[in-house]
């Protein structure tokens, strides 16, 4: 692994667990075993390192999430339900510290901040994936169904983080099944399921 990769990997792990502002550059350097000159050879500022770390998290979260959903069911409708199964497993894990993309927008609140923009792009791409599943499942209003499911997914993730109670995912899944029942009423799958678009690595 190159020194730059070590920096990004270490920063991603530390920023996710402790927050971007709480982790200083010296801590990242010490954990990565990289000299300060190496840091500034690749990044002009800490914010640039934060952005690179967030993009790395985006790659991993989306790829892992979509792969888990694809494994969970052979049908688009089944995968829509499995979204909540995957989130349930995530929030029950010992390394769950909430959604990193929600967390980072609290620290970089300006909507035009590059870090905030990158976090918003992650959410847009996740919604796009859910909308594609909804279209493949034959939903008449694929975007509307995807938005409703995304709201439930985001809500149960935040509540699980804040309260420490992963059972909110069960509640969200029950609500989602009612939404799916209505959204897919009379639906005929529009096309055969296809592999999701992966994030670049």
CATH class of one domain: Mainly Alpha
How much of the residues is beta strand, in percent?
under 5%
Q: CATH homologous superfamily of one domain - what is it?
A: Tetracycline Repressor, domain 2
Fraction of helical residues:
over 70%
CATH topology category name of one domain: Tetracycline Repressor, domain 2
Keywords: DNA-binding, Transcription, Transcription regulation
InterPro entries: Homeodomain-like_sf, HTH_TetR, Tet_transcr_reg_TetR-rel_C_sf, TetR_C
GO molecular function: DNA binding
Pfam families: TetR_C_13 (PF16925), TetR_N (PF00440)
Describe this structure in words.
- The chain has 201 residues and is mainly alpha-helical.
- The protein has a domain at 54-184: Orthogonal Bundle (Tetracycline Repressor, domain 2).
- Helices cover 72% and strands 0% of the residues.
- The protein has 9 helices and no strands.
- Helix 5 (76-91) runs parallel beside helix 8 (142-163) and helix 7 crosses helix 8 (142-163).
- The longest helix has 27 residues, at 46-72.
- The model has no long low-confidence stretch (mean pLDDT 91).
- Residues 24-43 bind DNA.
- Residues 1-61 form the HTH tetR-type domain.
- Keywords: DNA-binding, Transcription, Transcription regulation.
- Pfam families: TetR_C_13, TetR_N.
